[in-house]
């Protein structure tokens, strides 16, 4: 039995390889920040449709959502073989959601990060060049802006009120087929996973799991309820094949709203952090005696059999000021055990710089506790 692996939904099928489900290569270039006005609208209350599935009809929500979902084309610059000339070519496609009539569009960071240019195609066939207002690799969200009249922003739901089993629709641009609608249910809530795109890692915290079909090109598209209100931004799948097997994940709209409003106001999203660096691939390694022995040789004492190994600390940062050093082990935050890096990111996901947290950690054979103020880690 093949082991399921988490894959970020590829931004697109590359030119000439339609149907390939692979993550786009990024060119890491500085992103030009804009100073847009407006933001995401107010959260609207959810009214659940509990009618019999036998009578389910999704034409109405599809008609509400489709005008608000766009296709996003990314272009990257390459040096042409032979003469060395710089050429810009389309390298992938994704999706986006209009959240304000002023032209504000939400998509995934992995769809547009580092792109030389971004183009948006609306459901009415109009095409516009988009400005990347800001990106947030940590949450895998990005904000675009287009100058276009007569836009229809999507209605916003409240992701804190959705329930397992309720109907949802996923709308996007899979494999370049713009305006595609798929139907499913909320399969689970509160999923935490890490997805990597090149050298960037994003953390999907409290993600919505759905069995609605999500494929390459759905990245940045809408997950909406049966009333046509946005409850999440589609971002990742778990798969044994690279394609949809009915396990997709969306970023909850309540988190999207906070990140987007930060980007619109500041140009980046604020995140509170400890000021430590760690390697997620080492999660659980302390359960191995050989690993503990190796760390003991470095730290001078045998570490505990659980926790997060500190790879490095920010000089002058919150953790260093609290006495945390390299090769220490983080054990608990606010009383909750830190079994792995995903738990830490889940606990910090809603915390802002300046907030106080209590930290328990192992330091060269001693268990210590400290209260520290979270530092800002969102600025790129």
CATH architecture of the largest domain: Beta Barrel
Q: Average pLDDT, to the nearest integer?
A: 85
| Uncertain runs | 1-37, 48-52
Helix content: 10-25%
Which strands sit side by side, in order, in the main sheet? 9-10-11-14-13-12
Number of helices: 6
Q: How would you portray this structure in words?
A:
This protein has two domains: 239 residues, Thrombin, subunit H, CATH 2.40.10.120; 105 residues, PDZ domain (Pdz3 Domain). It is globular. Strands 9-10-11-14-13-12 form a six-stranded antiparallel barrel. It has a six-stranded antiparallel barrel with strand order 2-3-4-7-6-5. 13% of the residues lie in helices and 37% in strands. A hairpin with a 2-residue loop joins β10 and β11. By secondary structure, the protein is mainly beta. This is Trypsin-like peptidase domain-containing protein. GO terms for molecular function: serine-type endopeptidase activity. InterPro entries: Chloro_Bact_Ser_Proteases, PDZ, PDZ_sf, Peptidase_S1_PA, Peptidase_S1C. One of its GO terms (biological process) is proteolysis. It comes from Fimbriimonas ginsengisoli.
Summarize it:
With 380 residues, the protein is mainly β. The protein has helices spanning 59-65, 109-112, 253-266, 289-299, 318-321, 341-348, and strands at 5-8, 69-79, 86-98, 104-107, 117-121, 127-136, 141-145, 155-156, 167-172, 180-197, 200-210, 222-225, 229-239, 248-252, 272-273, 276-277, 308-309, 312-313, 329-333, 336-337, 356-363, 366-373, 375-376. It has a six-stranded antiparallel β-barrel. Strands 2-3-4-7-6-5 form a six-stranded antiparallel beta barrel. Strands 17, 19, 20, 21 and 22 form a five-stranded antiparallel sheet that branches.
């Amino acid at each position: 039995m093949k082991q399921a692996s988490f894959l970020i939904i590829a931004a697109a099928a590359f030119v000439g390889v339609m149907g390939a489900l692979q993550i786009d290569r990024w060119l890491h270039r500085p992103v030009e920040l804009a100073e847009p006005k407006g933001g995401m609208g107010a959260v609207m209350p959810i009214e659940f449709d509990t009618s019999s599935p036998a009578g389910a009809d999704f034409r109405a929500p599809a008609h509400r959502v489709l005008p608000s979902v766009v296709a996003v084309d990314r272009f990257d610059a390459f040096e042409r073989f032979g003469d060395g000339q710089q050429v810009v070519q389309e390298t992938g496609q994704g999706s986006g959601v209009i959240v304000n009539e002023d032209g504000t569009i939400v998509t995934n960071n992995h769809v547009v990060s580092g792109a030389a240019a971004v183009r948006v195609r609306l459901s009415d066939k109009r095409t516009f060049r988009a400005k990347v207002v800001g990106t947030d690799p940590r949450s895998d969200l990005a904000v675009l802006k287009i100058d276009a009249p007569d836009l229809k922003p999507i209605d916003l739901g409240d992701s804190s009120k959705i329930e397992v089993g309720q109907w949802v629709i996923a709308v996007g641009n899979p494999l370049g087929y713009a305006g595609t609608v798929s139907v499913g249910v909320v399969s689970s809530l509160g999923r935490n996973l890490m997805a990597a795109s090149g050298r960037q890692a994003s953390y999907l915290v409290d993600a919505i799991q759905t069995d609605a079909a999500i494929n390459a090109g759905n990245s940045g598209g809408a997950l909406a309820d049966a009333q046509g209100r946005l409850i999440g931004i589609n971002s990742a799948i778990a798969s044994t094949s690279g394609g949809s097997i009915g396990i997709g994940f969306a970023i909850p709209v309540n988190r999207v709203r906070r990140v987007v409003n930060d980007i619109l106001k500041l140009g980046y999203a604020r995140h509170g952090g400890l000021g430590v660096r760690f390697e997620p691939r080492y999660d659980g390694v302390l359960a191995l005696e050989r690993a503990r022995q190796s760390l003991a040789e470095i730290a001078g004492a045998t570490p505990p059999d659980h926790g997060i190994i500190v790879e490095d600390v920010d000089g002058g940062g919150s953790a260093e000021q609290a006495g945390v050093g390299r090769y220490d082990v983080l054990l608990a935050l606010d009383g909750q055990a830190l079994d792995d890096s995903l738990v830490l990111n889940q606990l910090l996901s809603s915390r802002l710089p300046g907030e106080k947290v209590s930290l328990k950690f192992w330091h060269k054979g001693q268990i210590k506790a400290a209260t520290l103020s979270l530092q800002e880690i969102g600025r790129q």
